[in-house]
Design brief:
3 helices, 19% helix
Length: 206
């Protein structure tokens, strides 16, 4: 008589993504981000069109409760995957108008990076993550893939949602799709490092 077969499936070397719905007044955050845009000059790194602020400088009374929550979430993420305690390296605001987008890039020298969305319009651009060896997946599995899953895809994406926080390893290549709505899409981005190492972020556009 045949014995019962025991089958186990393991997903090795995965890219961890932390997604958490926060509980902030996103109307207030949205308006404050627009106010900051009117007050200060921006910079261009991965953004094509749109506006990206310079790093916010502490102390910042308006954003302090938000920053405290994001740091708490980042350390919950770190604990979950056995990473040492982290602290915020830098934080900035993004305002993407219609048709604006962000090129594929990573946040090298950061343990974690992340993004938060206050009141994103529908069809305002997904965040797209790339497989760490996407070129090899394409070369070796292109003709073999039956369905695209997190295991077989070169790219995976998430649509922005109100009050959504997404955290991911800083080495993960990602891009932001074009804003196909008629409104501004605002996001707040940040990087984290171990306390002894912050700040040491280097954003590399592909």
């Amino acid at each position: 008589m045949n014995k019962t077969r025991e089958v186990k499936f393991h997903s090795l070397f995965s890219t961890p993504i932390w997604m958490e719905t926060l509980n902030f007044d996103t109307d207030e955050i949205y308006e404050e981000c627009l106010r900051r845009k009117e007050l200060g000059e921006g910079r261009e790194i991965s953004n094509v069109g749109g506006w990206q602020s310079n790093d916010l400088t502490p102390p910042d009374p308006f954003f302090e409760p938000f920053i405290n929550q994001v740091v708490s979430s980042a350390n919950a993420f770190a604990d979950h995957i056995s990473i040492k305690e982290v602290e915020l390296s830098n934080i900035w605001i993004n305002v993407n108008g219609p048709r604006d987008y962000n090129l594929r890039h990573d946040h090298g020298r950061s343990v974690f990076s992340g993004v938060f969305y206050p009141k994103p319009p529908k069809n305002s651009g997904s965040i797209n993550f790339y497989h760490p060896i996407s070129n090899i997946v394409s070369r070796e599995w292109k003709e073999a893939i039956k369905d695209f899953t997190p295991e077989t895809s070169q790219r995976w994406w998430y649509e922005p949602e109100d009050n959504l926080l997404i955290l991911f390893p800083g080495f993960t290549e990602h891009e932001v799709g074009p804003n196909l709505s008629d409104s501004d899409r605002i996001s707040i981005s940040f990087n984290f490092n171990m306390k002894a190492d912050a700040p040491r972020t280097l954003i590399t556009v592909k």
